[in-house]
Each structure stands twice: as C-alpha cells, then as structure tokens.
Design a protein that fits this description.
Length: 338
Amino acid sequence: MTPGPDTLICRNVWKVFGARAAEHLAAAGQDAGRLAALGLVPAVRAVDLTVRRGEIFVIMGLSGSGKSTLVRCLSRLIEPTAGEILFNGQNLLTASDAEMTQIRRHRMGMVFQHFALLPHMTVLDNVAFPLEVQGMPRPAREARAEEMITLVGLSGREHAYPRQLSGGQQQRVGIARSLAAEPELWFLDEPFSALDPLIRRELQGEFMRLQSRLHKTIVFITHDFDEAIRLADRIAIMKDGAVVQVGTPQDLVLNPATDYVREFTRAVPKAKVVRLASLVTPGPVPEGMPCLPARATVAEAGPSFLSGAAHVGVTEDGGAIGTVARDDVIRLLLGGEA
C-alpha cells in the first residue's frame, strides 16, 4: 500500500521542563544552550516532521534522546511548551481538554511497553473496556472485542485473566484493546522491548500481518535499529531532543546526514535495508518466477538467489511490477549504490 496524504504534522515542537518554561523559551530565542544554562531541560527541541496516512513511522534514538516525550506530546498526554501539531488539519494544541479526551478515546490508539492490563478483568473485558468508556452497549462492545481477540490470535482465551497469560499474550491483549476503538492514528511506545527475543520477533511478524490488513497510520517508538528496519516505512532518528534525520531505512544507511547517524547505522548490513523496489527493472514477470513484495529486502530475496534464480519477480498491491536481477544485488553488496 502506498502511503497517503499527511495525517500528522509537527512544526517547531518544543517540550521544556522547568519553571516558567514557555516564558524562558521565548526569551532565550529557542536556544537550547541558554535554556540549559537557566537550569531548564529541553527534552524535545524544534521538531518538524510529517506522518503520512497508512505508513509506519518509527521514531528512534538512544535512551534519553526524547523519543517517548515526543510521542506523548503528539497525543498531548504531555503538554508541549511550544509549536504546532496538526492531526487531519486540526491543531491539537488549541483543542480543549474535553476535545482531546474525545480524540484520544475515538481516534487514537496507544500501546506502551508496560501492558497496563486490569488484573481483575478477563481478556474480553480488558479489550472491551475502551468501548465501555465510550458508552457502547455491552452486546456490541463484546462482539467488537471478540473480533479483535481473534485478529491478534487469542481465540479461546477470552475468559482468561492477565495472570494466566504469557508476556507475549498480554501484549497481544494490549494491542487488541488499543484497536477496539478503531483508531485513525496508532501510537506504540516500545511495545515489544520487555519481551524475550523470540517472542519479540514473533510479535513483530504479527504486527506486520495486522498492518497488511488494517493499513493504520502508526507512530512506533523503539531504540532497536533491527526492529526499526523490519517495521518502518520511514524512520526519524533523535539525539538530545532533536530530530537529526528522517528517511527510509535505506536512506539512513546509504546516505547518513550526520556522523551520529553514520555511527548509529554503521553495523547494519545493506542487505537488511535495501528494498527490492529500489532495484526493480519494470516489466512483465515470467510465469513460474519466484516473487516477493516490493517492500521485501534484498536479504529476504537471498534464498531465491541461492537456489539458482537469476531474477526474482516483484509485486505491489497484488500485481507484478517487474524483476530484480541477481547481478544487481551482487553489485550493491560489493559497494555499488542502490
């Protein structure tokens, strides 16, 4: 699916912690150094970014880079100190508290690292809880909750309690609960980082399966570059509260804008980030040729080439768009450009 128009637009967003932060920010001319000298903490600095409809937009950085603070500013769980945040054209910073409550209940979904399930409620009741808050009648909300439980692969566990579930299952309940209200914009803040590596990878795959069906607009926070390149359409890298580069995983690895980004991506193999779409030669795909989606990486095409294929077909939105040659892949991996 090709991402659509911009759903979320941030312009010069700041979050400064400390007394009289807005006043000092204006007086300091939005200079982070002068703010720090005053004992204030500029946790988010002059962030400009856009999130397109239907894309997975990953925000990443090291611990303390400001990524979680930024995502809370985007939903106004934390009040930004300055800037503009447009959601489908509406400036969220001018919305009343009551309006923001309605937007978060009906148009935004949120999943965090800590599952925050209600321990005295069953899986069904946990998933249905946001719909109960909305005032939806019990039969309708339970039917919707059962749909979401099936979607995340937990059929049969509707009447289990959180303590009876594994960590991965609990996170699936959190995902189902956040989807129950059919959000337009979905925020996920390190949702898999508390899980062991095997379960984490399984849930990443499940997440991609869900996205292929639901086409949500997603802002996903992580500090793990392997996770980011597996999931992201585009990535914003943060350092000291500022966004230092935005691009596709391929852009960041092949064309880092700063030394920080270069170091951040230095160990990432090209085969993991270069997508077949960037190497495709448009044209018909012969019958019987192995095919992969355009967003698949060169690494994912490797088994076909190792099996002797000189070309693989590339598909997008259900139709063939062309082929990728093994020689072009070899050229790329030996130092050529995508």
